[in-house]
Amino acid sequence: MNASLRLSLPVLVRRESASPAIKLVAPAVALGLATLLNLGLYMLMGRDPGAVFHAMLLEPFLSWTSFSEVLLKMGPLLLIAQGLAIGFRAKVFNIGAEGQFILGAIFASAIPIWFPQATGQWIWPAMLILGALGGALWASITAFWRVRLNANEILVSLMLALVAAQLLNYLLLGPWKDPAGFNFPQSVMFQYDAMVPILIPGTRVNVSLLIAFAFSVAAWIFMQRSFAGYKLQVGGLAPRAAGYAGFSEGRAIWLSLLVGGFAAGLAGAAEVAGPLGQLQRSISTGYGYAAIIVAYLGGLHPIGIIFSALLMAALYIGGDNAMVSANLPIAAVRVFQGSLLLAYLVAIAFVRYRFEWRQAAQGNAP
Amino acid sequence: MNAIEFIVAGMLAAATPFLLAALGEMVAERAGVLNLGVEGLMAMGAVIAFIIVYHGGGHFLGFLAAGLASAALSLVFAIIALGFRANQVAVGLAIGILGQGLSALFGKSYESLTVKGLPKLALPWLSDIPVVGGLFAEDVVVWLSLAATVAIWATFAYTKTGLVLRAVGENPKAVHALGYPVIAVRFAAVAFGGAFAGFAGAYASVVYTPLWADGMIAGRGWIAIALVVFGTWLTGRIFLGACLFGAVSLASLAAQATGLDISSQLLSSLPYLVTIVVLGVISSNRRLLKLNGVASLGEPFEH
Known about the structure:
Helix content of chain A: over 70%
Largest sheet of chain B: 2 strands, antiparallel
CATH topology of chain B: ABC transporter involved in vitamin B12 uptake, BtuC
Helix content of chain B: over 70%
Strand content of chain B: under 5%
Shape of chain B: globular
Structural class of chain A: mainly alpha
CATH class of chain A: Mainly Alpha
Radius of gyration of chain B: 19 Å
Distance between the termini of chain B: 60 Å
CATH class of chain B: Mainly Alpha
Number of domains of chain A: 1
Strand content of chain A: under 5%
Radius of gyration of chain A: 22 Å
Number of domains of chain B: 1
Shape of chain A: globular
Oligomer: heterodimer
Number of helices of chain A: 14
């Protein structure tokens, strides 16, 4: 059985050394592959693939208005993905960024909801800081569970994201509901000083994009240039070696989760203090989950993530376009995201492996 | 019917989606494969079964198609994670996102529609016992799930298949040296897990709450993965864990029905909070996990 399988299938053989060239082209190959697969799916659904392609992947870049919306969406994705990638490189899988994002939005909203009359330039920076702390606080539960109780961080962080969504519902249906809001699950509109200043006049792009870029630079310096970042990466690549070298695993987990939660919380705060201007049920359209894909697609590298965040943001805007112009269900964006990550994971396999066609069985088959 | 009778009568039905998905995941994990895509696989099964039952195909065909569809999606996982040796965590997450997206896409024109569930089959005499009698009146899928639980337990306890599966998860190199096809066994285990996740989703959408709504799996796939840890990879304990979660979700319903002044959001998050607490309690017993854990879980096999 073993032999017959080997006869018909190509075998994956480890390369002598990893191929950096393939690492660079893998995201592009993945994008091409995912695009082809999804256009095929749209054809099966009876949509005009050309029209969807135009609306989804080209239109976001064709006008300044829609490109500025891409930049607006890019902010939170970039911020969350940079935070997550640091953890992923240390093999700490925080997949509950969605929850940390929600907590950031809730913490930030506390200021304008409790002090609607307050004025002053301090309000929006205070909201961002409070939001980041809220995200970090939510992530610290996962860190405690992992370090102290040995619980799997994937499951705990995901469960906490589901709890966070319920907490948001509770606030918006109960104590924080706008009394004059016709019973809609949303808070009051925030005052002017609670809004993050606009970065590019005439658009909705605000200062939070600048913060996301600053965070990217900080992530790059931390991961490529600092000893702490080096220790994290060793812990991820060779946990045993890290243990012998005395690098604390617990500290790496705490650091990964706190940084990830901080960034996600900051993104959540910037969302309510930015384009939304209030706390709503739909504050996140799955940013926390999409950012996982952004992080991987960017090769878990701070510079790569800038490009993948731009791509993913364009997909969001393009998905909205395609919904309007080509009557494509918005769920198609999630399908595209999932297949993009799968295509990337296939492409990236060729960095370390190559295919070899073997004629006969080797090894120790009976 | 008081709250206790209500919980006893409905516990097994509420537990079934957890049970089926967790048993499937356990088989995959026992073979050394961590498939985190269960939530998406369940959503896929749920929507396929719903569409077929809605158009009059019947429950049997619905379950069959759901199992096949989810098994097919889990084979995509297997090809990328095992064939291309990609990071199993990342592939699982991607399959989860893809499965949920596909289910929303397929189910778009069925949103909030309902179908008819399945009748309860009561065991004579036993179902007439006061208080616990409700336990013996269940639909056919629950009875079959109980039979599957026993069959899986017996397979691991008594058969060579079970032994090979466990060995593949413990020490794939040794099993390979003995001449067993490690990758083929893992493919089969993943497909089995996928089919069971599909059945679990189908049960949720065409029997337990016979309706389709986007996001209706609501974290049950993730809880099923946690259940495998709670049950320390043992069939009997996973069954007990699934019953616990069935009871917890019914207790929330019972509390809401009796008009207790607890916010419905708190009750909805109760299963998630229980998962977090139990995960902490079980995992902090490192010896227990080490004793029963799967040695090569999540690691690619190279020879």
